[in-house]
Amino acid sequence: MKKIDEKATKCPFCREDQRGFFLKHKIISGILLLFLVIISGIFWVSIASVLMPKPNPTLAPENKQWITDAGKRYYTAQKNYYDTLGKAMHASPDEMNITKNIASAEATMKLCLYKLDKQHCENVIDGTLWIGEPKFWVEMTIGAYTSSRNTTIVRGVTHEQWVFGNPLYGATYAYFDNDVLSSYQEQNPTGN
User: Fold this and answer.
1) Would the CA dihedral through 81, 82, 83, 89 be positive or negative?
2) Residue numbers of the domain that contains 128
3) What is the DSSP string of 79-136?
4) Can you tell me the distance from the alpha carbon of 160 to that of 137, in angstroms, rounded to the nearest whole number?
5) Do 174 and 129 touch, CB atoms closer than 8 A?
6) In terms of domains, do 151 and 181 share one?
7) CATH of the domain at 156
8) What is the pLDDT of residues 8-24, one digit of tens each?
């Protein structure tokens, strides 16, 4: 049996190319290598974004005082809202209000600042809805108590209508598409 030199690129007997696939096809090999580099770069960037902590604005020194002040204002606003709602609904405001004390109000504002920004947190305190507001923050803004909730699912989109208050005496209607506020209206039957 005749041996072929290890450094030979072609067989001296049959003239067949002896190089491996990647050496035979340098352009395809280069494209594959570039593709692998790009994919591995995307993979490591996505891993890094998951593993690296998101900057927490609530830890900034200037925000600590804001959270304390905002928590007090939010607690007062929620207490007033539920006291009024409790009288109108002949129910205990303490049972309806999920903000039990200033510490829980501060925790809500800390979460708000982490998830949103100061302007949207001010809207939550003031009871001001905004289009695009997540359902959770609507509950934090005007309360979790509703007189009715209606849900319709069409082509994979969940449409909801929440009624806050009594339509006979004044109510706010909030409309959601997939847990995001898409519109709202306030009804005041007295015309004021």
Assistant:
1) positive
2) 57-187
3) HHHHHHHHHHHTS-HHHH-S--SHHHHHHHHHHHHHHS-HHHHHHHHHT---TT-BHH
4) 15
5) yes
6) yes
7) 3.30.1450.10
8) 777 777 777 777 777 77
